[in-house]
Write a structure and sequence with these properties.
Number of strands of chain A: 3
CATH class of chain A: Mainly Alpha
Largest interface: A-B, 20 and 20 residues
Distance between the termini of chain A: 42 Å
Shape of chain A: globular
CATH topology of chain A: Arc Repressor Mutant, subunit A
CATH superfamily of chain A: Winged helix-like DNA-binding domain superfamily/Winged helix DNA-binding domain
CATH architecture of chain A: Orthogonal Bundle
Structural class of chain A: alpha+beta
Oligomer: homodimer
Strand content of chain A: 5-15%
Chain lengths: ~100, ~100
DNA sequence: CCAATGGTTCAACTATTGTCGAACCATGAC
DNA sequence: GTCATGGTTCGACAATAGTTGAACCATTGG
């Protein structure tokens, strides 16, 4: 098995719109995604709810977003850098992120 | 209790975007919603998967869509008429239905 | 009225998701 | 190397969601 420092990201062509919708259908996950609209962010810097969330929980929430093709999660220093897969998603599901992440 | 012939539809202001996303995050429910984009449809006429679905299952799937504010379900003759709550949803979540229901 | 059609609801069950402690892994600082 | 920091993974459990038969309800047609 490969070093788990590089996590798996599905090719965007393997991502179904239902996967994306499901990933964003949870308030905590949606909140995480919205923190990335203005650009990449250190994982340590973004918070799911504002309150304290166990790191296992946060890691799991981001895993769902990652496996749904919504976010990218790459090593950076001793932490990780998160980013939206904006361009790719816009190409396949035009307007989706705009409407979902833009609406309050 | 009131006659269950009139089902409950949440005011659109009570509908969270996460409710809508969740309702549409299931392939069968998404397929149902997509059959309504061109206008209202008799419930008996729309099929969830193409294959045979027990009526209890179909009723349940539509209940999720209804309670998420996505579809309206009113009595019509001895059956029911389904429709998207297009205008209301467009007002609150602009572009959402366009991008979700429009994309293949 | 009665029967057929179309649908909802209930209840019981299965299956999927979510949560989080504990153990483990990688990197950077020293 | 060692320690601290930041994160993933595993495993067990809790909670939520999905499926479906059976019972029931409403409407239309005869």
């Amino acid at each position: 098995m490969t070093a788990p420092t590089e996590l798996h990201h599905p090719p965007i062509s393997d991502v179904a719109i239902t996967d994306v919708l499901f990933a964003l259908s949870d308030p905590a996950r949606l909140a995480l995604a919205r923190q990335l609209v203005d650009g990449p962010m250190d994982m340590a810097a973004c918070s799911a709810t504002g309150g304290p969330v166990p790191k296992a929980t946060k890691s799991h929430q981001l895993k769902v977003l990652r496996e749904a093709g919504v976010v990218r999660n790459v090593p950076k220093g001793r932490g990780r850098l998160l980013s939206l897969r904006r361009d790719e998603l816009d190409a396949v599901f035009p307007g989706l992120l705009d409407s979902v992440l833009g609406t309050r």
